[in-house]
Amino acid sequence: MHYQFPVTKTTAPKGKPDPECLNFGATFTDHMFLMDYNVENGWHNGRIVPYGPLCLEPAAAVFHYAQEIFEGMKGYRSPDGRALLFRPDMNDRRAMNSCERICIPPLPEGLMTEAVKALVDLERDWIPEKEGTSLYIRPFIFATEPFIGVRASNEYLFVVILSPVGPYYAGGLAPTRIYVEDKYVRSVPGGTGEIKAGGNYAVGLRTEHEAHEKGYSQVLWLDGIERKYVEEIGTSNAFFVIDGEVITSPLTGSILPGITRDSVLTLLRKWGLKVSERKLSIQEVYDAFDQGKLEEVFASGTAAVISPVGELCWKDRKLSINGGNIGPLSQKLYDELTGIQLGKKEDPFGWVVEV
Ligand code: COI
Prior knowledge:
The chain is an alpha+beta fold and 355 residues long. It folds into two domains: 19-165, Aminotransferase class 4, branched-chain amino acid transferase, N-terminal domain (D-amino Acid Aminotransferase, Chain A, domain 1, 2-Layer Sandwich); 176-341, D-amino Acid Aminotransferase, subunit A, domain 2 (D-amino Acid Aminotransferase, Chain A, domain 2), CATH 3.20.10. The chain is built from seven helices and 17 strands. It has helices at residues 62-65, 88-101, 111-122, 198-213, 259-270, 282-290, 328-341; strands at 31-38, 42-50, 68-70, 73-77, 83-86, 134-143, 155-165, 176-181, 218-222, 230-233, 236-242, 245-248, 274-277, 294-301, 305-314, 317-320, 352-354. Strands 1, 2, 3, 4, 5, 6, 7 and 17 form an eight-stranded antiparallel beta sheet that branches. A hairpin with a 2-residue loop joins strand 10 and strand 11. It starts with 30 loop residues before the first strand and ends with a strand. 42% of the residues are buried. Bound molecules: 2-OXO-4-methylpentanoic acid (COI). Residues 72, 201, 235, 301-303 line the site of 2-OXO-4-methylpentanoic acid (COI).
């Protein structure tokens, strides 16, 4: 289905940020996409308007019970000037699963992708060109009905905003220091860890804050029941290379089904590597280190891309991974993924979509 959305252009376009000083998620483009939901009309009134504040009642349900979901995706500029998206259908599907889990009425099939394309098309000049930069795309849906009883809202807003970004971690591809979290938990099977709901990220803030205070950039989450098995790194999926086997957690219900995670698994299998989606205990990671078999650890995500881990700390014992340097597999994956995303490398899986 092809949608046409009316556009109201800004009368006060902003200047573009300096591509040399782009950090993550602090600057926004000139326009945003909005669409309303109410019970009488369903999803309606999709439109592009100047970026600016939203007017909501203090009683809007989202402020009280966090009925909200979001997505994260990126727009890239190819060397020949095309605007490219990476696997937008996956974000669309995942967002609709997230909606279903917390009783938000799903958008009509494909509408999120069409809204993203329409906005990126209008804002294509905002896609930065410098290596390591991109246009981060943030679609989100939240409850707007002014009602503080606890039930699903009858009114929602779907919004897409765009932000030209540099690397998620200030150090770019420099390996990160990761603290293994054994006090707090992120999720358990049957909870909401496998959807992209804002509330999942709120519960991680205290943990991240404490990790920062200890000098670490993020945490490695362990499973919420036994506190034994590795799950995610901060807001990304986690991969471990042990004795030639690349291991990541299976999608047990508490892990976010990352689009970069899926792309990494697909590439590794194409390259003929031994890949396992299996439970991996933190003890096994430490034992592998002691036996000289822990080759690499890295995180994968839309924002983080491939983010190598240089140090792990669990119960005060620190491991220096690959001498604190980026490992060859992490580098190869980063080069291959960003090469495909930027339209510089062959795209054998048909992942890239031109706007
Ligand atoms: C992403 O990788 O897109 C995320 O959603 C992570 C984060 C910025 C919340």
